């Protein structure tokens, strides 16, 4: 049996799971080739393979946005068997079901979909566990991968749960707004030596290294918030900037208030005269929703690019932006599989 594995790993959990699967399959005489998924990468050829394996970390109960988009570009499966492994930190929700649905729409027959839970790597806002916790979570995750392998042998679905409404809502909001806003909280403090490792490791190509003597990385709105950069920085220089969070929230709130006032003063009155009273509430809800989205876009877009970006370069102000509650936190990189 010949497998093609498409995977992405932010801090090594998915990479460890894939390695365990590969060793288990090869011990039975099968073969597995691996292709790392990155934004903008061309879909691989599937000719010559018997089964497709997709593995990814779970972000907000969903696959990373760029992984889902990548799966939609795969060649038509024509009934080829596929299996999905979603790697989470104890709460993956129905992420595997999302990937399975995309694969089915591309013509693949998904025979196994499952999850494996490893240690939490959301270092941006959560302190990673101590070594004892990591060891225990690694044991749990490895055991779940072993169950996934047993399911592969038996050809029966290990976990084909449906997408819940709550998972869908959280996943949608994170994919459209959350990941972009959280990405704008990252900041490279003065420990940064502009090595560029975060730029090279970013799967979404969302980090740009500025030019000049004091070059520092900056995060674009296409960030997936996978936490690869904050955990893999060799200087622990990537931090969560409380000042950036506060200023961006203030800016977005200001744009929101301004937008609602302009709508109420100039657009709502003519709308009210043209539409039935029964539809007025619906129009208001749609308008406010659009204003919220626009305020978010203006905050993390033009405001960040043309004002905040230059404000944080001022020496005295830069120290304020560099302060972070998680500077001295542990970072998380999964242990590689022992030889």
Q: In a nutshell, what does this entry contain?
A:
The protein is of the alpha/beta class and 339 residues long. 48% of the residues lie in helices and 14% in strands.
Low-confidence stretches: none
How would you sum up the major sheet?
5 strands, parallel
What are the secondary-structure elements, in order, as H or E?
Answer: EHEEHEHEHHEHEEHEHHH
Radius of gyration: 23 Å
Helix and strand content put the structural class at alpha/beta
What's the mean pLDDT score? Answer: 94
N-C termini distance: 23 Å
What topology, given as strand order, has the largest sheet?
2-1-3-4-5
CATH class of the largest domain: Alpha Beta
* Oligomer category: single chain
Estimate the strand proportion. 5-15%
Counted by DSSP, the helix tally is 10
Number of domains: 2
CATH-level-4 superfamily name of the largest domain: Flavodoxin domain
Helix % is 40-55%
Supply the key terms.
9 strands, 10 helices, 339 residues, Rossmann fold, two-stranded antiparallel ribbon, 5-stranded parallel β-sheet, alpha/beta, 2 domains, globular
Give the topology, please.
Elements: E1 2-7, H1 13-27, E2 31-36, E3 51-57, H2 65-71, E4 81-88, H3 95-105, E5 109-117, H4 131-154, H5 165-183, E6 186-188, H6 197-201, E7 207-209, E8 217-219, H7 228-232, E9 238-240, H8 242-274, H9 277-311, H10 315-322
Parallel strand pairs: 1-2, 1-3, 3-4, 4-5
Antiparallel strand pairs: 6-9, 7-8
Structural description of this entry:
- The protein is of the alpha/beta class and 339 residues long.
- The protein folds into two domains: 2-167, Flavodoxin domain (Rossmann fold, 3-Layer(aba) Sandwich); 242-322, no CATH class.
- The chain is 48% helix and 14% strand.
- It has ten helices and nine strands.
- The protein has helices at residues 13-27, 65-71, 95-105, 131-154, 165-183, 197-201, 228-232, 242-274, 277-311, 315-322, and strands at 2-7, 31-36, 51-57, 81-88, 109-117, 186-188, 207-209, 217-219, 238-240.
- The strands form three sheets. It has a five-stranded parallel sheet with strand order 2-1-3-4-5, sandwiched between helices.
- Helix 3 links the parallel strand 4 (81-88) and strand 5.
- Helix 1 (13-27) crosses helix 4 and helix 8 (242-274) runs antiparallel to helix 9 (277-311).
- The longest helix has 35 residues, at 277-311.
- The radius of gyration is 23 Å and the shape is globular.
- 40% of the residues are buried.
